[in-house]
Amino acid sequence: MLSFYKYETTVRVLLLRYKDGRDRSLAKPIMWRVKKKLKKYTRDKMVVVVPSRRDSQISRSFHHVEYLLDCAGIVSHSIFENKALHDQTNVSDRTDIANNIILVAFTKIKNKDVVVVDDIISSGSSLEACMRLVKPYVKSVKGISISYSKRFEK
After folding, report:
1. Which terminus of the chain has a smaller tally of CB atoms within 10 A, N or C?
2. Residues spanned by the domain of 77
3. Over 90: is that where the pLDDT of 72 sits?
4. Rounded mean pLDDT of 101-121?
């Protein structure tokens, strides 16, 4: 698991303003520091993104993780769907997310090295669910997050 920023103070404000405030102009500054390392880590791998709820993506008018990756020059694929009806704001909702994420395009990833990317790791449940779903179909699977909560500090 690779993660770049600790999700606090400035990074938290930037990511929330980018994601919830729909401020696309922040994508390049967010990715500037990590772009080179991210490209190296994803080279020759199929990059897939953790899904957002459909209504969240519609209200934003873009998939925030795909757009971050695009700004870093990384092609990503959407192979999952998130069927959750509401935001996963508390711990029980986050741990239940595995029941709401489904793999809809497994043929795209068959026998490939895959990297699953998420923006923020809070509980780790979404990324873990996606990695578990692809594991039977791929050669290898790794996870990346742009930021992580202090819960994941070593």
Report:
1. C
2. 2-152
3. yes
4. 95
